[in-house]
Amino acid sequence: MALSNDNRIGRHAILLLLSEDSVGQLKKLEQSNWKGCTGKVGSMEAHKVVAAIETAAKKNGIIQSNVYRESHALYHAIIEALHGVTRGQVQLGSVLRTVGLSFAILRGNPYDSELEGDWIAVSLYGTIGAPVKGSEHETIGLGINHI
Predict the structure, then answer these.
(1) Does domain 5-146 bear CATH number 3.50.50.60?
(2) 20, 59, 96, 123: least surrounded by Cβ within 10 Å?
(3) pLDDT, tens digit, 9 for 90 and up, residues 69-123
(4) What does the similarity note say (predicted)?
């Protein structure tokens, strides 16, 4: 049940997110039967961030929308990543904060044994701050959940 060094899903999700060549990075990961995508979202409302990431995951075939456990696993990975971005308080507009984020979603099996099944990782990177241009700073978050 050891984690494979080459398949650390969180590491790959962050590298995909920060890569200058995300298309090339995705092609390499897909050769290992992993699925992924990248995107961007900006909002003062956390539910809009969640919705954008869920929509991207469904559109890109990373999760099946008619399988509850897949949507549920993705939701928990998103919320965990948002905890990192918001420093533990998943609040944005209600406390006058806004985010501008890039995201990466990655699905695959990070273990040596195929019996462990798929996991999903969501990585977020961008800015957070008051809704005034120039009043933001960098932020990053990572969430990982089993499917």
Answers:
(1) no
(2) 20
(3) 999 999 999 999 999 998 877 777 677 788 999 999 999 999 988 899 999 999 9
(4) Belongs to the HutP family.
Which of the four pLDDT bands, split at 50, 70 and 90, describes residue 4?
low
DSSP bridge pairs for 140 = 125
Q: Which of 68, 75, 73 is nearest to 51 (CA)?
A: 75
Rounded-to-integer distance, Cα 83 and Cα 97, Å: 14
Beta strands in 1-147 (DSSP E): 35-43, 98-108, 119-129, 136-146
Q: What angle do CA 11, 51, 35 make, to 5 degrees?
A: 40
Helix (H, G, I), strand (E, B) or coil at 142: strand
Q: Which residue has the tokens 């501008």?
A: 100
Q: Sheet harboring 136-146: ordered strands across?
A: 35-43, 98-108, 119-129, 136-146
Which residues, in sequence order, are CB contacts of 54 under 8 Å at separation 6+?
71, 74, 75, 78
CA 117, CA 22: separation in Å to the nearest integer? 25
Contact 80, 142 (CB under 8 A): yes
Say if residues 52 and 42 touch (Cβ distance below 8 Å). Answer: no
